[in-house]
Each structure stands twice: as structure tokens, then as C-alpha cells.
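Quick note —
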Amino acid sequence: MRLIFAAGAHDMTLIGNALVALVAALHIYFLVLEMLLWTTPFGLKTFGNTREQAQASAVLAANQGLYNGFLAAGLIWGLLHPAAAVALQIKTFFLLCVIVAGLYGGISVSRKILIVQALPAALALAAVWLAAVWLG
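Predicted structure written out below.
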């Protein structure tokens, strides 16, 4: 019976870390969109901007992209940290930052941000914490 619970905890850890990696990858993608592709046809279509709007807000978008890069870096740090207890704290902090940013963006910009940013981070946080509780 103990082996079943150990396997379940290991699986939940893998699922949690996979979701954290997905959230990090999304934020690297957001960095690229906001810092490099903002004024390109793809960036214009993605964000529904005109060329004029995109050019006028390019510096702000690049700044926002940089912050998304910091979130990704923090999540990757949490994934790579060798001490499980410290890694849990790092992942928790950065996932909560992503959730707060997603909630704010969902309220102030577009409800789509709730699905694209906040929901994956909330699922990752739940999985990371379930694994931590499961492992004791």
C-alpha cells in the first residue's frame, strides 16, 4: 500500500513540475511577443493593435515582456533548485506572482488573460502543493 502512495506522490511531483515548466514556457513566449514581435504583423494580430498603437506602446510592451522574462526565470530557478523545500517556496512565490498578474490583467485588460495566464499558474500551484502535502 505504501508503494502505491509513493508512486502517486512521485507522479504528482512530475505533473506539478511539468505544469510549472509550461507556465515558464508561456512567459518566455510572452517575452518574445512583447519584446520582439510587438510591431510585427503577428504581434499586431495577436494583440489587436494597429501599427500606430503598437509603435506608440512598444517601449511599454518591451518593459512588460521583460517582467514576464523575470517570472519565467524565477519558475525555472524553482524547477532547478536542488533543495526540495526551497524549490517549493520559490515555485510558490513565482506562481502566486503569475496568478496575481493574470487576475489583474483579466480584470483590467481582457478576460482571456485569466485563461491564458492565471489558470495555468493556479493549476501548477495546486499540483505543486498536492505533491508537497502528499510527500509530507
